[in-house]
Automatic annotation (TrEMBL), chain A:
Belongs to the ABC transporter superfamily. Macrolide exporter (TC 3.A.1.122) family. This is ABC transporter ATP-binding protein. GO terms for molecular function: ATP binding; ATP hydrolysis activity; transmembrane transporter activity. It comes from Aestuariibaculum suncheonense. Pfam families: ABC_tran (PF00005). The keyword Nucleotide-binding applies. InterPro entries: AAA+_ATPase (IPR003593), ABC_transporter-like_ATP-bd (IPR003439), ABC_transporter-like_CS (IPR017871), MacB-like_ATP-bd (IPR017911), P-loop_NTPase (IPR027417). It comes from the Bacteria.
Automatic annotation (TrEMBL), chain B:
Residues 290-413 form the ABC3 transporter permease C-terminal domain. InterPro entries: ABC3_permease_C, Lipoprotein-release_system, MacB_PCD. One of its GO terms (cellular component) is plasma membrane protein complex. This is ABC transporter permease. GO terms for biological process: lipoprotein localization to outer membrane. The keyword Ion transport does not apply. Residues 22-261 form the MacB-like periplasmic core domain. It holds the Pfam family FtsX. It is a multi-pass membrane protein. It is found in: Cell membrane. Keywords: Cell membrane, Membrane, Transmembrane, Transmembrane helix. Its main location: membrane. Belongs to the ABC-4 integral membrane protein family. LolC/E subfamily.
Length: 224, 420
């Protein structure tokens, strides 16, 4: 099985207000089709790690590989292209462009990538929405749908460019158990059917237990 | 690679959802550009009118024989005092003739020069206008009426009658309007003039002359050269002034210098004669640009403010865009393009409003004694001003948009996402 994401000796310090060693020698790999979850106490550095893995935070020590290519110290221009094409990100809070329609939100990363024609993008976006059972919301303004719906729109957006890996920072944190279940099933389906890799930070024990692998963190270190 | 369609679509949505702020910012630019166009068209129109007032009437080179004391006093001819310091009291001008010696060959010489457009001889003299027992002092100038009309727009200053009428009438006179009013004369009447050395000559009034300068109109009249020469009892080579009009006004200075050296005459070029006039033009231009640039700076700050506010409100959007693969440059372009759209729309509207105001001003009646040919406020509609105005709008909004958009480029998405 090929390795999608690999972290080698990742260390991170916060220098303010006092020097704080937040991530300590993080090493792990995510294989293709793997559904991994990260658990750990609040404040142990899960989000910090995820921001580094998603290439948004470049202020760290160590090496990061995406599809076996070193992405540490790449230009920010190049990193944004990688992010656009290979990484889908789902936040705890549903981050959508509130003035755009659901449909436009989903299409935006594909339009930025510019590899497909507008018709293809529209078709893809519609397919993703259908898969998440929210195609009826397509023309609604993103600010006018419910939290659970927003979360699914964000997932559809993360999927639009068929990325190598989807990362989520407590994507079910704000959802009721029914919707959380629903999101889990969508993730599960994506790994099983399309061989998508997933790395999800969660506090939800039930959610984590159903994933392939749990990465347990404590005080900035991986313990299991 | 920049995906303009996506970037412009995002900025369009941002602008449309904040239509009030967008409109305010654009109106600032509109106001600035509109004011610039109005001011500059009006001011340069005024400048051109005043310039024409002077330039049309003023010869490019005026040649005459100035009465002045000799540079060399007889004492200096005397060799014995060469080494000593001498003082001459009560220097008087040399008694010499007023007319230009050898005027006719000089005229021919000047006419043959290719940079010269026209050469107009004149005979100036002082006379009295006689009405019953009253004698009014005045000037009578002998001219070639048709040439004067062609080269110096004499026709513009004839309020009744015409240059042709003067040309075709022997012993005709184009009377200053001030004199006509004082003496209650009308066209077809006869006026008697008397030169300083005596005699009375009746002349037939063929028209009235109004320069707009009341003092001048109360003394100045025109007649044909021949008529003046006859009144003065002189032959046809008696010419007191030669006026030259050039093709290129810049050539006036070298020509006047050359004439002074070659013919020992006084030759004054228009630039020297009207030096103070250009200062006025310069100052008016300075005011126009100072006011316009001030307005545009104010408009620029408006754009700057609104863009800053917009970026502050759109922090989340910026973080999302960056997280989903838009680069800092893309984000900067999104906000830059918003500034430029505001500048473009505001600028075009400003040009239209400026054009509208200018067209209105152009129809407002502006009647003044001083300018008989002017009917409405003068306007100079030069397309160059519109190009400059539009560039102004684009440049000022570009500068106003640059700093805020640069800030947006640098925003760290992690900070925003954490901040939620
Ligand atoms: N910008 C920052 N400057 C200094 N310290 C920070 C900063 N951001 C986070 N921290 C600290 O780093 C540690 C890890 O934060 P992080 O957000 O990664 O925790 P987490 O594991 O995601 O917690 P949670 O489960 O509550 O989301 C925390 O102790 C936090 O106080
Ligand atoms: Mg966290």
């Amino acid at each position: 099985m090929s390795i999608v994401l690999e972290a080698r000796h990742i260390n991170k310090y916060f220098k303010k207000p006092v020097l704080f060693h937040v991530l300590k020698d993080i090493n792990f790999q995510i294989k293709k089709g793997e559904f991994a979850s990260i658990m750990g106490k609040s404040g142990c550095g899960k989000s910090t790690l995820l921001y580094i893995l998603s290439t948004m935070d470049t202020d760290y020590e160590g090496e990061l590989f995406l599809n076996n290519q070193l992405i540490t110290n790449q230009s920010s221009e190049h990193l944004s292209v990688l992010r656009n094409k290979h990484i889908g990100f789902v936040f705890q809070f549903h981050y959508l462009l509130s003035e755009f329609t659901v449909f436009e939100n989903v299409m935006l990363p594909a339009k930025k990538l510019g590899e497909k024609s507008l018709q293809e993008i529209e078709y893809d976006a519609y397919e993703k929405l259908k898969k998440l059972n929210i195609e009826h919301l397509a023309q609604k303004r993103a600010s006018r749908i419910s939290g659970g719906e927003k979360q699914r729109v964000a997932i559809a957006r993360a999927l639009i460019n068929n990325p190598s890996i989807i990362m989520g920072d407590e994507p079910t944190g704000n959802l009721d158990s029914y919707n959380a279940e629903n999101v889990f099933n969508i993730f599960k389906q994506l790994t099983d059917e399309q061989g998508l890799s997933l790395l999800i930070v969660t506090h939800d024990e039930d959610f984590a237990n159903k994933t392939h692998r749990i990465i347990q963190m404590a005080d900035g270190e991986i313990v299991v | 690679m920049v995906n303009w369609a996506v970037i412009l679509n995002i900025s369009k949505t941002h602008l449309l959802t904040k239509i009030k702020q967008t409109a305010t910012a654009a109106l600032g630019v509109t106001f600035g550009i509109g004011a610039y166009i109005t001011l500059v068209c009006f001011m340069t129109g005024l400048n051109a009118m005043l310039d024409n007032l002077i330039l049309n009437q003023t010869p490019h080179v005026h040649i005459y024989n100035e009465i002045k004391p000799s540079e060399k006093q007889p004492l200096t001819m005397y060799g014995n005092v060469k080494q000593s310091f001498s003082i001459v009291h009560s220097v008087k001008p040399k008694l010499s003739q007023k007319n230009i010696h050898n005027a006719l060959p000089i005229i021919t010489y000047l006419r043959n020069k290719k940079e010269v457009r026209g050469v107009l001889p004149q005979v100036k003299t002082q006379i009295f206008y006689i009405a019953g027992s009253i004698e009014l002092g005045g000037n009578l100038t002998g001219i070639n009426p048709l040439d004067e009309a062609g080269l110096f727009n004499l026709g513009d200053y004839i309020v009744e009658g015409s240059a042709e009428a003067l040309q075709n009438t022997d012993n005709g006179i184009l009377l200053g309007i001030g004199i006509a009013e004082k003496m209650a004369l009308k066209i077809g009447d006869r006026v008697q003039v008397s030169p300083i050395n005596g005699g009375v000559f009746p002349l037939k009034i063929v028209g009235f002359y109004q320069s707009g300068i009341a003092d001048l109109d109360a003394v100045q009249s025109f007649t044909k050269i021949k008529t003046v020469q006859r009144i003065l009892g002189r032959t046809n080579n008696y010419i007191t002034d030669i006026n030259v009009k050039m093709y290129d006004i810049e050539q006036a200075i070298p020509l006047s210098k050359k004439i002074e050296q070659q013919f020992k005459l006084t030759a004054v070029d228009i630039k020297t004669a009207n030096a103070q006039f250009e200062t006025g033009t310069k100052i008016r231009n300075l005011i126009t640009y100072a006011v316009s640039i001030t307005l545009l700076i104010v408009a620029g700050f408006g754009v700057y403010n609104i863009l800053n506010m917009l970026i502050y409100e759109k922090m989340n959007d910026i973080a999302i865009l960056k997280a989903t693969g838009f680069s800092g440059k893309d984000v900067q372009l999104i906000f830059m393009s918003q500034a430029m759209i505001i500048g473009f729309v505001g600028g075009i509207l400003g040009l239209l409003i400026g054009l509208g105001l200018v067209s209105i001003i152009d129809t407002i009646p502006f009647k003044t004694e001083a300018l008989p040919t002017v009917e409405t406020y003068p306007i100079n509609l030069d397309p160059v001003f519109f190009v400059i105005g539009f560039s102004f709008a684009m440049i000022s909004t570009f500068l106003a948009g640059y700093l805020p958009s640069k800030k947006a480029r640098k925003i760290d998405p992690v900070k925003i996402i954490r901040g939620q």
